[in-house]
Amino acid sequence: MSPRKDAARNHARLVEAAATVFRRDGVDAPLDTVAVQAGVGRATLYRHFPDRGSLLAAVLHDRIATLERYEAERGGPDLLVVEMCWYMADMHGLMTAIEASVIDDVHLAEVTERSNALLSRALAQAVATGVVREGTTLEDVLLVAVMAGALMTNPLTTEDDVSRALAICFNGLRRGAQTHELPAPELRAE
Questions:
Q1: In 10 A of CB 130, how many CB atoms?
Q2: Can you tell me the distance from the alpha carbon of 121 to that of 107, in angstroms, rounded to the nearest whole number?
């Protein structure tokens, strides 16, 4: 195998391994675990990805590319919205890593722009086809995804729990769902 092909194969294996490890152990998992999962040495990992942020950015770029292919092949706006929410839930700790500026601003801006464009297209199509009620915003769907991700940080939460929570949230966004403002909590200030 040529050095270029070997490097490309190692790069792909590292991204795939990182996605698996980050999904299983969170984005703060030891990078040595990623190298072991990929079947490469620590030096190979750091030659491709000098820090956690660059590896996480590569995982995010790869996942967005997968979601873009999914959109092109499968369609179904509600399916894409659910896939994106599950991805964010699976990558528990992602928001913490983003808030801690682990990913450089350029990569973060690109991933955010691509994912928001993808989700906005799916949401617009879901509203247009009557799957989701009028007035549902990108921020509404992102909030659902963040809540699902927060659930995944609880060690007692199962995938079934997250699936149920997503179903509750998405059922509330469906066309025909009745919306009511929640009453203000009276005892919370005490």
A1: 11
A2: 21
- Give the residue with greater pLDDT, 85 vs 98: 85
Q: Please give the span between the terminal C-alpha atoms of the chain, in angstroms, as a whole number.
A: 68
Quick: pLDDT tens for 121-154.
888 888 888 888 899 899 998 888 888 878 877 8
Beta bridge partners of 174: 132
Distance CA 141, CA 170 (A): 9
> Residue 3's pLDDT is what?
64
Q: What is the pLDDT of residue 189?
A: 60
**Mean pLDDT computed over 41-59:** 93
Query: Any idea of the CA torsion for 98, 115, 138, 141, to the nearest 10 degrees?
Result: -70
Nearest Cα to Cα of residue 49 among 78, 16, 81? 16
The CA distances from residue 155 to 71, 126, 168, in Å, are 32, 33, 21
pTM of the predicted model over 0.90: no
39 vs 22: CA distance, rounded Å: 16
Answer for the pair 86, 143: CB distance below 8 angstroms, yes or no. Answer: no
Copy the structure tokens of residue 186: 């009276």
Cβ atoms 149, 94 nearer than 8 A? yes
Q: CB 67: neighbour CB atoms within 10 A?
A: 19
